[in-house]
Amino acid sequence: MASSLRSAILRHIRVPVTQSLALNGSRLATVRSMSSHGDDHLDKQAVIDRVLDVVKSFPKVDPSKVTPDVHFQKDLGLDSLDNVEIVMALEEEFKLEIPDKEADKIDSCHLAIEYVHNHPMAS
Questions:
Q1: C-alpha–C-alpha distance, residues 47 and 55, integer Å
Q2: SS3 assignment, position 108
Q3: Which among 79, 82, 100, 104 is annotated as catalytic?
């Protein structure tokens, strides 16, 4: 719990870092930079590819029917329990927790892609 909280905080802060460069003991310059924990957000195409891979790997799904706009129940014939299992697989794939209230709304690849792409903790 503590390590996940620490990781969550560190992803969203920038810490100034100062370094002194030295040559033969004499100080040449001071370099100041900022950490970039928040700059590693997933690009949308990577999210699309990974979401589609998760859905295609689900045992009850015909991979040839999976597109970015496919609906889990209407197009793939999955039931609500299958929907929950796919959301859990997405949580594992992207290392995030989706609250039940939000998970209930994710019923298509499109909504899964949008949720993950807009989630700051997705990795």
A1: 12
A2: strand
A3: 79
Q: If pLDDT is split at 50, 70 and 90, which confidence band does 8 have?
A: low
Rounded to whole angstroms, the Cα distance separating 17 from 95 reads 28
pLDDT per residue as tens digits for the range 64-115: 999 999 999 999 999 999 999 999 999 999 999 999 999 999 999 999 999 9
Phi, psi angle pair for 26, to nearest 5°: -100, 140
Active site residue 79: yes
- Closest to 48 measured CA to CA, from 114, 123, 121: 114
pLDDT of residue 93: 95
Contacts of 43 (CB under 8 A, 6+ apart): none
CA 102 to chain centroid, in Å, comes to 15
